[in-house]
Amino acid sequence: MKVKEAIEKRWSPRAFSNQMIEKQTLKNLLQEAGSAASCFNEQPWHFIVGVKGTETYQKIYDTLVSFNQDWAKTAPVLMLAVSVNEFSKNAKPNPHHRYDLGQSVGFLSLRAMEENIYLHQMAGFDADLAKEKFKMADQAEAVAAIALGHLGDSNQLNDDLKEQESPESPRKPLEDFVFEGEWGKAF
Ligand SMILES: Cc1cc2nc3c(=O)[nH]c(=O)nc-3n(C[C@H](O)[C@H](O)[C@H](O)COP(=O)(O)O)c2cc1C
Question: Selecting from 3.40.50.300, 3.30.70.890, 3.40.718.10, 3.40.109.10, what CATH number does the domain 3-153 have?
Answer without folding.
Answer: 3.40.109.10
